[in-house]
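User: Fold this; tokens only.

Assistant: Input:
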Amino acid sequence: MTARLLLVGLGNLSHPLTRHRPFALDSLATRLGARLSADKLISGYIAETKIDINDRPFTIAFYKTHAPMNISGPPVHMALRKTARAPSSLIVLHDSIEHKPTALSQKFGGSANGHNGIRSLISALGTKDFHRLRLGIGRPESDVAGYVLSRLPNFERQFWAPDGPGLDLVWEQIQRIAL
């Protein structure tokens, strides 16, 4: 039987080229040959691909919602019901001001740590038990909102690009979670 995973990139599609954009999800979909396309039923973009990880077959769905990050929980819940079904099969990629730029930290369960997108997901799913890959963007000295909505520096875009070293780290974590 083929295992299923749903990879979600939290971000605001209305703010391109900022820290609030799911670059790593787009890059990973590109790397694995999955083409995201609009799906009105789940209010976002979705793609699927089949891949073997250590000789085990997986179907990986990629999803990003049209909804703003802070209210992304309900559409992500709909995408989860359509694809992987179990919250434990959900891997959310999101920005983290608690981690320095280009750092990657994996987490399962726990609180939202002040992240409104994660808070919305926990509320919609009714559980904290899903995987998170926190992509570091660093903490500004002031004006967090202005910082996360500011233009993503070129070195960070290159780091999370399809051929960037950050994407290798993301893929390694996804494989660990999958197995």
